[in-house]
């Protein structure tokens, strides 16, 4: 059995960053920017008023000063003349500040009669002008790689980047196996249960920007499994669930081998997740997850997510492990790294008393995985331990 670290390295070696494609800005949110992009303009392109009021000369601002209003500047409609001594231009938010003016008095501080305005007594020193290029300048770079969030999309739009270079979406086929499984919404027979892992994993991977295909459930026969594998063709990654252990009906490894899988490893010193396997099947990377629901989800987070991040051109790791104090005593750990479902309450880590790998209800209320190294000695409440957010 190899260590979690060795297994992660072997998984990451299965794939490389995917090709770049251009998508319309409207479809770029949630995608990973694959190449640096450069602003094609300056923002704002002119000194702009940040308030509704009057543009005039700063050196003339004093209580009760009188100005003649000689024109108007609105957003999208500049005033073409020059503001001279004793003159003001009516201006609105977003409008270019006219030549000659270097100050905008907000209209609340002004009394207007016809074409004349008089300044009030409480005008501060703020000019209410946004300088040209105050947000960004022509040629400014947005760096790749990065996951594009709504704010990034707005920035790219303002930079007039209509077509965005992003990493191609990894296509992931998810293949659940087992005679006992039916799809959610179907009516299980007495000996059957509802497939959950494929849906949890699909949600996990979709959230990362994968194009996930949940394949029909394969039955516990070599024929059914082979047929399901053919449906995965064209994917970048196939993730199988279940049938990974040593039982008579655990057929994933032998069938994959028959189809030409080059196995990278089988079995990892971790709990849950011992019977994990990985390798290459033709052009696809393959990860065989254990069937127990919590094992599948934990292995998804520990191995599949980093692989997808690598395919997307991102750092494989989202963040290093964090440290926090234990709320309770814990016995020594055994020869497998233990990824315990735990809750972080008032800064303290509470591992759930029930750690069986079938318990989705425990996983669903956990907010962290407490990570115990191989052969970690007994720990007492208050000791610092490592964890990762879920
Ligand atoms: N003699 C041994 N038995 C087992 C060992 C072992 O080392 N020696 N390892 C155990 C460990 S650890 C795990 S984990 C499981 C993994 O088994 P499989 O990957 O072969 O998974 P299955 O047997 O197919 O299923 C296990 C369990 O999970 C349920 N399951 C499967 N797929 C789904 C799904 N898509 N959605 C929901 N639930 C699913 C399945 O019904 C079983 O209850 O093996 C141990 N055995
Ligand atoms: O992967 Mo198994 O969950 O260690 O019980």
Automatic annotation (TrEMBL):
Gene3D superfamilies for this protein: MoaB/Mog-like domain, MoeA, C-terminal, domain IV, Molybdopterin biosynthesis moea protein, domain 2, Molybdopterin biosynthesis moea protein, domain 3
Family assignment from sequence similarity: Belongs to the MoeA family.
PANTHER family: GEPHYRIN, MOLYBDOPTERIN BIOSYNTHESIS PROTEIN
Pfam families in alphabetical order: MoCF_biosynth, MoeA_C, MoeA_N
SUPFAM superfamilies found in the cross-reference section: MoeA C-terminal domain-like, MoeA N-terminal region -like, Molybdenum cofactor biosynthesis proteins
Catalytic activity line of the entry: adenylyl-molybdopterin + molybdate = Mo-molybdopterin + AMP + H(+)
Membrane-spanning segments: none
Protein name, entry field: Molybdopterin molybdenumtransferase
EC numbers: 2.10.1.1
